[in-house]
Amino acid sequence: MPDFAIEIDPARLMADLRELARFGKQGTGVTRLAFSKPDIEARHWLRRRMAEAGLAAAIDDVGNVIGKAPADGPAILIGSHSDSVPGGGWLDGAMGVVYGIEIARAVVESGLVQRCPVDAVAFQDEESTYLPTLGSRTLFGAVSEDEMEVARSIDGHRLTDAIAASGFANNPPRRLDGGRYRAFLEAHIEQGPRLEAMQTRIGIVTAIVGIRRFRLHVQGQAGHAGTVPMAMRKDAGALAIALSHALLEAFPTLAGADTVWNIGSLALSPGAANVIPAGAEITVEIRDTDLAKIDALEERLRDLAAAHAETSGQDIVAIRTLDIPPAAMDPALGERIEAAAAALGASWMRMPSGAGHDAMVLCRHMPAAMLFVPSIGGHSHTVIEDTAEDDIVLGCRVLANAVARIAGG
Amino acid sequence: MPDFAIEIDPARLMADLRELARFGKQGTGVTRLAFSKPDIEARHWLRRRMAEAGLAAAIDDVGNVIGKAPADGPAILIGSHSDSVPGGGWLDGAMGVVYGIEIARAVVESGLVQRCPVDAVAFQDEESTYLPTLGSRTLFGAVSEDEMEVARSIDGHRLTDAIAASGFANNPPRRLDGGRYRAFLEAHIEQGPRLEAMQTRIGIVTAIVGIRRFRLHVQGQAGHAGTVPMAMRKDAGALAIALSHALLEAFPTLAGADTVWNIGSLALSPGAANVIPAGAEITVEIRDTDLAKIDALEERLRDLAAAHAETSGQDIVAIRTLDIPPAAMDPALGERIEAAAAALGASWMRMPSGAGHDAMVLCRHMPAAMLFVPSIGGHSHTVIEDTAEDDIVLGCRVLANAVARIAGG
Description:
Two copies of one chain form a homodimer.
Chain A: H1 10-20, E1 25-26, E2 29-30, H2 37-52, E3 56-59, E4 65-68, E5 75-81, H3 92-109, E6 118-123, H4 134-138, H5 145-150, H6 159-166, E7 181-189, H7 194-197, E8 202-208, E9 210-219, E10 223-224, H8 236-254, E11 260-269, E12 275-276, E13 279-288, H9 291-312, E14 316-324, E15 327-328, H10 331-343, E16 348-353, H11 359-362, E17 368-373, H12 389-408
Parallel strand pairs in A: 5-6, 5-7, 7-17, 8-16
Antiparallel strand pairs in A: 1-2, 3-4, 4-6, 8-15, 8-17, 9-13, 9-14, 10-12, 11-13
C-alpha cells in the first residue's frame, strides 16, 4: 500500500478529452489520420498541455509527443496514440493519452513528482495510416530506413513525404531509455462488448493476442455455367465454399475460450452469375494469446486445404500474410491495477486484448500493463464509439491509484 | 426422303467465315459488339454477300440483315447472330449466319429455289451489348419502346443513340411473317465440352434451358474480429458460407441429369481481414429444360434460406433476379436433322442447350431447331474458341441435308 494518493481532476480530464476531440471532429467521432492537418495540430496542442502540466514536453522527428516529468527515474510512462482511423471514435487511443497527461499533472501538482515521476506520451500512427505502431517502434529504433522508405498510405502517399510536410522532420529524434522506466501503462477503450456484457467496469489485460492471417487461393477453371455439365467442372467457388465451411466447422473443436477467427473476405472471380468461378480468394485470420492454439488452428487449416485440393484435383495455396506473436502483459503490474480497482470498489476482470496496441511494442522493453474501460455496444473504429463518462473517470482513478501502488507500494 | 440434294461448297463456306472474322478481329477471335464500327461494317458485308447469293437482302432499322429467297413460301429461315461479346470467338453466332448464306446460295445455284426457298438472317445484339436478343425479338414486335428507351450498354451508352449513330435508324422496320416459314434452323458452336467429351460431331438440341437467377442477401453485424467473442457475433460471412454449402449439398439430390447450377459470386462486406462481415451477397443460378426441376431447386433454396435465418436470428432475403422459361425445339425438325446426320454417317446426340440463343425467341412463332458442332476444349466467349474445320463443314452439310428433308421429304 502506498502512503500517498494521486487525485485526478475529473472535470479537467473530461475537458481535455473534449478539446482533443475537436481536432478532426467528424460528427460524434474523429478522423485524425497520422500526419493529417488535424493530427499535427492535435500534437502541438498535446505538447502545450504537457508543458502546462509541468512536463518537459517535445515532439520528436516522427510526431511522438513526450512529456518528461522533472525528476530522475525510475519513472512510469503512461500514454497511447492520438491518431485515429478514418471515421473513428473520439476516445480510442486519445483517452489513454489524456489519462497520461492528467495523472502526470496530478503528480506534479501534489508535489509527488520526486517520489513518483510520471511521463506522458502520445504515440504516432498506431492505426497504420502509413506504418502500424510507427511511433512506439521508432522510440526503440525498431523501424528500419527501408521500412520508412517504402511505407505508403492506402491512397499512395509516401510516409517520408508526410513526415517532411508535417514539420516534424527537423525535430530531434528520440529514443526511450528503458533504464528510466519501471513500467508502461496504457489505458484504452475495450473495442469489444465483453465488459458491457459482464457489467464489469475495468478490464485488466493479461496479454495482447497474437494474430496470424492467411490468404487461401483456390484454383478452378472458368466455364459457361449453362453449358458445362456439373461433373465436368473445376469450380473454384464450390471448392472455396466447401473448404471455408470445413474450417468453420473444425476451428471450434480446437479453440480455447478466447480463441477467435474470422473469414473476413471471400471473393470469386470473375464473379459473374453465368460463369463458373475460375478462382477464389479467402482471407482467414486467427487470434489468441496462446501461440499453441494459433499453431493448432493453422495446422488444421493447412490439413484441410491439402485434403480439399487432393479430393478435387484443384490447386489450393495457403500463404501466411501476417504473423504477430502474442504479447504478455506484466503480471505484477496487473496485480497492482487489480488492487487499485478493488480499493476503489470497481468491478474488474482479467481479459485478453483482441486488438493490437502500442503496449505490444513497449512490453518488449519494459514491464507493461493495459487497462480497459467498457465500450458502449462494443463499438469501435466508428464515430458512434462511446464510453459512459463515469467509466472514463473511474478508469483514470483506478490507473492513478495503481500508479501510486507501483511507485510507492 | 427428298428427291433432291443441296450441295454446299466447303471452300466458299470457310472463306466467308474467315472474311467475316476480319471484322473486329482480336487475335484468334473477335470483338464485334452490336452497333460498334466492326459490327456495322460486317452487316453491310453480310447484306452484300446475301445479295450476291441471289437473295433480296436488306438491313432493317435495328441492324438485322435478312436475305429473302426469290420464291414464295413456305420457306426455311436459317441464321444466327453476327455480333459478339468482348473478346469473343470467331465462330459463335457467325457460323450459323454463314451456314444460312451458304445453304441459301447453294439452293439458288442448284435451281431449287422454287421447291426449297431458304432465307438467311443475321440477328442483331443477341449478346446483349444493349438488349438481349434485340434483333430477333424486334422481328416479332416483341421489344417495347420503353425497353428500347431505357436500354444502356455496360458503360452507359444508350441503345437509341447507338441505333441513330449506326445509320440503320432510317431503314424500313421489318416484321417476320410467320406464315412464310415452315421452320427456323439455327446452327451454333456448342459452347461447352459435351460433344468433344462424347466424341460426337453433331448435337441436336432438344430444348434451350430455362434460367432462374437469385440474389441472396445475408445480414450480419460488423465488429472487430479480435475483440468480439465468437459467441457474440452476427457473422454474415459465416452464415453465407453455411447456406452456400447447404445449397451445394442439397441441389445434387434434387437435380436431373441435365440440371446445372452455379454460385457465380459470393461477396462479403466490408471485406477486411479484421472485420466481422456485416453483409454477404450470393448469386445463385439454376438451369434446366424441365421447369419442375427448376421449381424444386428454388423451393429448396428458399427453405434453406429460411432455416438458416431462423437458426441464426439473422435476416436472409432471396430475390429472383432473372426468370427465363425453357424453350422446346420442334421434335419433327429434330428428327429431320437426325436423319440427315445418319445419312451422312455423322455421329450425333440429342442434348439441351445450356446457353440462350435467338431460337428461344423464334420457337414461339414457328417450328425451330438447333444444330451444335463441337467446341474444342469446350471454350466459348473467348478468343481461343475454335472448332475443327471438318466439323464446321460437316455441320453445314448435315444442316443442308436436313433442309432438303424438311422441304422435300
